[in-house]
Amino acid sequence: MREVSQLKLSEPAGYPLKTLAASRHVTIAIDDPSQRQLLERVLHQADVGLCGYSATFRVEALLESDFRVEPAGDILLSQRIFSCPSAFRLHVRHAIELMLWTQLCSPQTDPARALAVSLLSALTTTRFYQQMPTSERKRAADSLPDWLKGCIEIADTLTEEDLLQELASKLRLLMPLQGHDFANFEKIEEGIAIARGYTQIAKATEWILTQQGDERLLIDPATGLNKYGCSPRPRPEAITFSSCTASSVSEYAYREAEMLRHRLMQTLPSGDIAQAYEIEMEKVRTELMQLLDLDSLGTEVILASSGTDAELYPLVLFRSENEKLVNIVVAPDEVGSGTVHAAGGRHFGTRTPLGANVRQGETLTGLEADSVDVVCIPIRERGGSRLTHEELKQRISKAVIEAARVADKVILHIVDNTKTGVVAPDAEFVLALKKDFGKRLLVVVDACQFRLEKANLHRYLAHGFCVLITGSKFFTGPPFCGALLVPSQFDITGDHAPLPSGFSDYFTRNEVPEVLRSQAQHLSSALNFGLLFRWIGALKELKSFYSVASPDRTMILNTFRAGLISSIQENPDLDLIECEQPVRWHNADQTLWDTLPTIFSFAVKNRTSGNPDQWLSIGDLRTIYYLLNCDCGHKLPSSASEGDRQLASQRCHIGQPATIARCSQNGEIGALRIACGARLVYGIAHDLTLGKTSQERFDRELTDARTVLAKISLILRYWHHKES
C-alpha cells in the first residue's frame, strides 16, 4: 500500500458545504413506492429549480390537468405523468417553476400578474426542454404536454418576443395549472407586457449561465457539455481536475446563482428588474474588491465575459487617439487561444458575447487596423524545451527596445501561470524595463489562471501593472467570467475618446466602473444576466477558498502536489513534463500557496510505436481527453473485465491537452494536465461530505487523481479499439 503524507490542518473541519439537496425542504405525500422513488430521483437533480424553498407533492387521482399548483404552494400531480420518466422530469420542472413564481410574486391578487406568471413558467419549461440531452428529448417526445407540442418545433427559430406570443396562444391550456379558468381572464395584453420584462430570467439557471457569452459557451445537445467538457449544471458524478481549462459549476455555486434568480423574480410585482440588475452587478464589483482586499488600493474593476475579452481595454485606455501601439505578448501558445487576436484589437471568435456575428481576425469597428502591432515571444523552442530565464529576458528586452523605436506606446503582456503553470518573466526584470521606458511602457499581467495570492496581486498593482483575472479557472467558477484590475497610478479617464463603437458588441455599460461611464455611453444597455450569474457563482467559490486559513491552503496544495507527482512518476505510461516553482519576486514569501506549482503536465507514451520514449501527438491526446470525460465502458470488447468496465465508465474531467512541441515527424506533441483548484482546497479543509477528517478527504481526492491516471492507462491498453 502506497504511503500518503499525513495532513494536519491548523483548523478543524468546519462544515459540509451546503449542497442543493441539503437546501431543499420537501414533503412527498405519495403512497405508491415507484412514484415516490421516481419523484425523489428527479428532485435530487440540480436542474429542477427547487432551491431553498419548501414544497409538498401529492398525487391527485382525478386531476384533469397534468399538475396543479395550489395558492399555498402545494403541488398536485396527475397519475398519468408518471408513465414517462423523461417527460415526468419536465412536468416537475414546470410545476416547481410555477410554484416559485407563485410564492415570490403573489399572482392571486392580480389577474394580469397571474397571466404573466403562467407565461414565464411555460417559457422556462420550453427552454429547459431545449437544453435536455438529445436522447432524453427523444424519449420524452411522445409524452409532452399539449401546450408544448405546438411550439417546440418552432421555438429555436423564434425570438423571445415571438415565443412569448406563441405561448400566449396556449394560455387556455396553461391557466388550469394554477387552478384558473382562462375564460375568466381579460387582461391578456397586460399580462404579456409584464412577462416581457422578465423573459431573460424565465429560464433554468443552467440556461442563463450559458447566455451572453461567445461560442465557447455553446452546449452540445448530445452530451450536455461545452467545447471545454463542462456542464452548466452540477456534475458530481465526474472526477474533476480541470481548473487550468474550465470546470462544471459546483452545487453550491449553482445554488448561489439560483438564489440570485429568485431575488430577481421577486421584483416582478414592482417591475424593477433593471434596477435590481444594476444593484447586483455593482455588488459583484464591490464583493470582488473586498475579497481581494483592494478597497484601500484605489483599484478599479472592469468586468468582462472572459479574460480574453478584457484584453481589449488596455488598447484604448493606455493610448490617445492616433497613437501607434505595439503589444508584446509573452508565451502566446500557452495563454488563451484568442489572446493574440484580442491583443491586436481583432475579433478572436465568430460570435461576440452580446450575440454579434463577426469575422475572426478582423479589426474591431472604431480601431484602426494599422494602429496596433502584436509581437509574440514564445517561451519554448520548437522541440518543446523551455528557454532559460536569461534567454527569455534577452528576447523581451530586444522586443521592447525595437517596439519603442517605432511606436508611441508599448504594452508588455507578461503571464502569471501559463497553461502549463509557467510564470514568465519575473517581476524584478519587468520593473527594470519600466524604469527605463517610463510611461511609454504599460505592463499587463495575464493572471487569468488566477493562481495568485492576494499579497502578490497587491504587489503587481502597487507597481502600476494592470492585471487580467478570471473567476473560472483556479477558482472553478462557472465559465466564463473575467475582469481587468486597473491600478490607481493609471488614469482610467484621462483625455481618452469614447470607447470604440466595436466594444458595444462585447461589453455593456454596467460592466465598467462609474469613472468610465462617460466614455462608455454608447455601449450596450443590455442586462448581461449571463455574466452576472457566472460571477455570482465564482464569488461563492472565492469566499469558500478564502474561508480556509492561509497556512492550510499551502499545506493542502503542497501535500497533494507531492502525492500527485509521485503517482504520475510511478505510472509507466506517463512522463512528467515540468513542475518548476513559480518565481515572481526574488524576495517572495515562500509560505504563500502561490509559490507552489498547481498545474501538472505530463506526456503520454505511444505504446504502439516500438519506441518507449515516443509520445502521443496532440491529436491522440484529444482522443484520450474525450474518452476520459465520458462513460466508455460499453465500448470495451467483450473480453474486458468488470473492473475495467467500471473504470472506463468513470467520467474524468482534466485540463485540455496543451501543445508543448512541434516536430517534423510527429507534428504537434502535447501534454495532458491535472490542475489543483480552489474547490480541492476547501473541499479537503471543510467539506464533511467528502469524509469526516481532513486525512479522509485528502485521501479521497488523491484516490480520484489516481483513478484519472489509471483510466489513461486503461485507454492505452485498449487503444486499438478507440475507433469504436
Largest sheet: 8 strands, mixed
Overall body shape: globular
User: What separation lies between the terminal Cα atoms?
Assistant: 35 Å
The CATH architecture classification of the largest domain is: 3-Layer(aba) Sandwich
The helix count comes to 23
Q: What fold name stands as the CATH topology of the largest domain?
A: Aspartate Aminotransferase, domain 2
Percentage beta strand: 5-15%
Rg value:
27 Å
Helical proportion, percent range: 25-40%
Count of DSSP strands? 17
Total domain modules: 3
User: Which stretches are low in confidence, meaning pLDDT under 50 for 5 or more residues running?
Assistant: 12-23
Specify the CATH class of the largest domain. Answer: Alpha Beta
The CATH homologous superfamily of the largest domain corresponds to Type I PLP-dependent aspartate aminotransferase-like (Major domain)
Mean pLDDT: 89
Based on secondary structure, the structural category is: alpha/beta
Detail the topology: elements first, then pairings.
Blueprint: E1 25-29, H1 33-43, E2 54-60, E3 67-69, E4 75-78, H2 85-105, H3 111-131, H4 134-140, H5 146-155, H6 160-168, H7 171-174, H8 188-196, H9 205-208, E5 239-241, H10 251-265, H11 273-291, E6 300-304, H12 307-310, H13 313-317, E7 325-330, H14 339-343, E8 372-377, H15 389-406, E9 409-416, E10 423-424, H16 427-437, E11 441-446, H17 454-462, E12 466-470, E13 482-486, H18 529-546, H19 550-570, E14 574-578, E15 599-604, H20 618-628, H21 642-649, E16 652-663, E17 667-675, H22 678-686, H23 694-717
Helix pairs in contact: 1-2, 2-3, 2-4, 3-6, 3-8, 6-8, 10-18, 11-18, 18-22, 19-22, 19-23, 22-23
